[in-house]
């Protein structure tokens, strides 16, 4: 039995690097031809001159907020141009339109992403294989199947492995338990916090789930404490790091030493807020260039912090490794698998003139995130508190506790999101 999803995972590192960089000029040229936003990003730059990692530094980093703004500008007609639907919706970054894109998804913002007909489009099959999933197994998928691409990410990956998928989605904990007991899936995909909830509900109902022996988690932190919690229940859990824009970026292996970078993409660590690459080992922002011809993002700044690890993984996979998620380069954070942005807090404040200042606190134990919105206001009436709470739910799609404060109570430090959680 093969140890890897593809044998090239163990290819000599120098060989992989040569092959990847040799493909880069053609990929950039094709992206400029089919995605007008990439052509603007590379304006004045000769793709044939991009032959090494150091050459990438001349290309400006495009960050998530810029991608969102490009989409918003085109949707709202701020460019003054008559635009085809694909450019208007995707901000000029997609190389495919309706028909070639099987699905279009919306992430908070809203930001739209295409999914093409390519097998394993989001490239998560490699992570599933490393987590122990194999052909002819049943996968219980508890990522959302509506709006965001998470459900499709895992389903298309499982199909690429030859697995059958039960689309469990989110919520309905009792039904999740009973369905797992009936179907006896070999593994779970979803957030770690939701599987923890399912297993605790199974205990409460007195239902055993002996078939569940592996899991691939994403969307949340997966600290050692939670890994041990699942291991004590006989479940071998692994994590994968990705985004709705890039698909799978890096994944955990049996070595449990960092995350191995996916094939067919170039990952850099740069000084947050800049275009400048950092030396290996330094903590900075993850920036990714993907060779996906359908959605070709070039030097895309994720806003996530990490660092490159030295050497090769003991599992034999030779690609670059990163330490995993080490926080955010900005104040954006992730709560219950959803990104929460400072701009969303500002939108809540905009909707309620009674709010002078607001700060969102994120706290709670691992797998039990809690949000508290502290608001400075001279009006702490119950009616206003209800309306603000509803606005938070509408804007972030998450629930929050509201804490009214007198004017001047919040620190004058510019912070609007304060993540108090510990990932030890």
Automatic annotation (TrEMBL):
<dbReference type="InterPro" id="IPR042099">
    <property type="entry name" value="ANL_N_sf"/>
</dbReference>
<dbReference type="Pfam" id="PF00501">
    <property type="entry name" value="AMP-binding"/>
</dbReference>
<protein>
    <submittedName>
        <fullName>Phenylacetate-CoA ligase</fullName>
    </submittedName>
</protein>
<feature type="domain" description="AMP-dependent synthetase/ligase">
    <location>
        <begin position="141"/>
        <end position="289"/>
    </location>
</feature>
<dbReference type="InterPro" id="IPR045851">
    <property type="entry name" value="AMP-bd_C_sf"/>
</dbReference>
<keyword id="KW-0436">Ligase</keyword>
<dbReference type="InterPro" id="IPR000873">
    <property type="entry name" value="AMP-dep_synth/lig_dom"/>
</dbReference>
<dbReference type="GO" id="GO:0016874">
    <property type="term" value="F:ligase activity"/>
</dbReference>
């Amino acid at each position: 039995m093969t140890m890897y999803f593809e044998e090239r995972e163990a290819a000599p590192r120098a060989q992989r690097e040569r092959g990847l960089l040799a493909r880069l000029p053609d990929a950039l040229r094709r992206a400029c031809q089919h995605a007008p936003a990439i052509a603007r990003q590379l304006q004045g730059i000769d793709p044939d001159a991009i032959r090494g990692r150091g050459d990438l530094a001349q290309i400006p980093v495009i960050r998530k907020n810029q991608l969102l703004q490009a989409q918003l500008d085109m949707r709202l007609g701020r460019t003054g141009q008559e635009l085809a639907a694909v450019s208007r919706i995707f901000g000029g970054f997609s190389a495919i339109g309706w028909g070639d894109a099987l699905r279009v998804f919306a992430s908070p913002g809203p930001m739209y992403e295409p999914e093409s007909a390519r097998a394993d489009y989001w490239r998560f099959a490699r992570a599933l294989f490393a987590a122990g999933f194999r052909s002819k197994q049943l996968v219980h998928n508890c990522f959302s199947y509506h709006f965001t691409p998470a459900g499709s990410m895992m389903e298309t990956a499982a199909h690429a492995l030859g697995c059958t998928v039960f689309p469990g989605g989110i919520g309905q904990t009792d039904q999740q338990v009973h369905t797992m007991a009936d179907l006896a899936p070999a593994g779970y995909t979803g957030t770690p916090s939701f599987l923890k909830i399912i297993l605790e509900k199974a205990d409460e109902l007195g239902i055993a789930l002996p078939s569940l022996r592996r899991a691939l988690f994403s969307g949340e932190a997966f600290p050692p404490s939670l890994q041990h919690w699942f291991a004590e229940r006989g479940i071998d859990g692994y994590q994968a790091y990705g985004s709705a824009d890039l698909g799978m970026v890096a994944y955990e292996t049996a070595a449990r030493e960092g995350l191995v970078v996916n094939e067919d993409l170039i990952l850099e660590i740069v000084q947050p807020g800049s275009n400048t690459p950092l030396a290996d080992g330094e903590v900075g922002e993850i920036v990714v260039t993907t060779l996906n011809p359908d959605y070709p993002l070039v030097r895309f700044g994720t806003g996530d912090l990490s660092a490159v690890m030295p050497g090769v993984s003991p599992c034999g996979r030779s690609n670059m490794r990163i330490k995993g998620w080490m926080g955010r380069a900005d104040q954006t954070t992730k709560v219950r698998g959803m990104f929460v942005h400072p701009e969303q807090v500002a939108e809540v404040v905009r909707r309620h003139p009674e709010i002078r200042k607001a700060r969102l606190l994120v706290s709670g134990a691992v797998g039990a995130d809690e949000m508290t919105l502290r608001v400075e206001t001279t009006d702490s009436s119950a009616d206003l508190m209800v309306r603000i709470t509803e606005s938070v739910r509408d804007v972030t799609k998450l629930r929050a506790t509201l804490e009214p404060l007198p004017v001047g109570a919040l620190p004058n430090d510019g912070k609007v999101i304060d993540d108090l959680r510990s990932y030890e």
